[in-house]
């Protein structure tokens, strides 16, 4: 265990270096990201190896591989750096009425479309000098059912690339804080006058051509999983990377798309859309505002969380 005199000589930049090397898996890329030379990164790793009495990263023909100790240190190092950042952010008291900070909010574009206008109006009154960045987040295709489709987005929140996320998640790891905003379900959206609206049967649903919102381009989603359990399939004729692009394409074609009810309701008049219920039962998705417990030590992030929650009273 380090005594206080030893601890005083620890350079916190070494922990930043460790985190970036672990994320990049390559000394050269880590050096470029940190704006250091590869030699400086190697020297920093050597200091960490002596400090922690572990090789941390092993060289292989495919690059460097973290040791078991390095992998075990990933989460506590991330938490320590988040805590340090939170402490530094609180050096100047946060006052929304006078603050000129910029916050980044990440969410699927359907959620952003449903919340951005109201949020901007609220912030314009309570915090007129605060700026916002809205970032499009989408789930990743997972190979195993145990993998979290929003893991990459949670990592962006943890790395403070995004201050808060508005995500359709039921549970998050214990190091995160999540507050429920509202429930969102899906409907079958189509252009006004589409023949499916008159006969929305499961058979006709499966016989139609479909559009799927997919960030990876994979033509497989929750609708396909539900149909498979019923012994049915459908044809996904088009995939697009965003919900707003889906709205545009559905409005000018005979494609059907499962889209969030709130988005369809909001855009129906503008794009000439109509909607019917899905041909199977599905639980609504809870939309939650998510950040880390460490980030909540930042009074600005805590205020943003409370502001978002207040937009959706129980």
| Low-confidence regions | none
* CATH class designation of the largest domain: Alpha Beta
Query: Numbering strands along the chain, what is their spatial order in the largest sheet?
Result: 4-3-5-12-6
Mean pLDDT: 90
Helix-strand sequence: HHHHEEHEHEHEEEHEHEHEHEEH
In percent, how much strand structure appears in the residues? 15-25%
CATH fold call of the largest domain:
D-Maltodextrin-Binding Protein, domain 2
- The value of Rg in angstroms is 24 Å
- Tell me the span between the first and last alpha carbons: 49 Å
Largest sheet: 5 strands, mixed
- What overall form do the CA principal axes indicate? globular
CATH homologous superfamily descriptor of the largest domain: Periplasmic binding protein-like II
Describe the protein in words:
- The chain has 314 residues and is an alpha/beta fold.
- The chain has 12 helices and 12 strands.
- It has 3 domains: 4-89, Arc Repressor Mutant, subunit A (Orthogonal Bundle); 102-183 and 285-310, Periplasmic binding protein-like II (D-Maltodextrin-Binding Protein, domain 2), CATH 3.40.190; 186-277, 3-Layer(aba) Sandwich (D-Maltodextrin-Binding Protein, domain 2), CATH 3.40.190.10.
- The chain is 43% helix and 22% strand.
- The strands form 3 sheets. Strands 4-3-5-12-6 form a 5-stranded mixed sheet.
- Helix 9 links the parallel strand 8 and strand 9.
- The longest helix has 22 residues, at 68-89.
- The termini are far apart.
- The mean pLDDT is 90.
């Amino acid at each position: 265990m380090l005594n206080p005199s030893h601890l005083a000589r620890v350079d916190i930049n070494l922990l930043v270096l460790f985190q970036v090397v672990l994320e990049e898996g390559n000394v050269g890329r880590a050096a470029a990201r940190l704006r250091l030379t590869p030699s400086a990164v190697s020297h920093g790793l050597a200091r960490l190896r002596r400090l922690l009495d572990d090789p941390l990263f092993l060289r292989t023909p495919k690059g460097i591989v973290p040791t078991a100790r390095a992998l075990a240190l990933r989460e506590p190092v991330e938490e320590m750096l988040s805590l340090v950042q939170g402490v530094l952010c609180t050096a100047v008291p946060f006052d929304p009425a006078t603050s000129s900070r910029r916050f980044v909010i990440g969410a699927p574009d359907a959620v952003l479309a449903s919340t951005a206008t109201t949020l901007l109006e609220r912030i314009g009154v309570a915090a007129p000098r605060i700026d916002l960045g809205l970032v499009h987040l989408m789930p990743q295709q997972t190979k195993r059912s145990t993998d979290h489709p929003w893991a990459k987005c949670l990592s962006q929140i943890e790395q403070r690339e995004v201050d808060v996320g508005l995500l359709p998640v039921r549970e998050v790891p214990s190091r995160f804080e999540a507050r429920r905003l509202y429930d969102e379900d899906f409907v079958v959206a189509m252009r006004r006058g589409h023949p499916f609206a008159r006969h929305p049967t499961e058979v006709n649903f499966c016989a139609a051509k479909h559009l799927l919102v997919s960030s990876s381009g994979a033509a497989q989603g929750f609708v396909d999983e539900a149909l498979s359990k019923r012994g049915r399939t459908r044809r996904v004729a088009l995939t697009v990377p965003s919900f707003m692009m889906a709205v545009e394409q559905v409005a000018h074609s005979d494609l059907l798309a499962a889209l969030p009810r709130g988005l369809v309701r909001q855009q129906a008049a503008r794009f000439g859309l109509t909607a019917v219920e899905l041909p199977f039962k599905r639980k609504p998705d809870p939309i939650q505002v998510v950040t880390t417990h460490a980030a909540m030590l930042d009074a600005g992030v805590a205020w943003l969380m409370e502001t978002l929650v207040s937009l959706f009273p129980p």
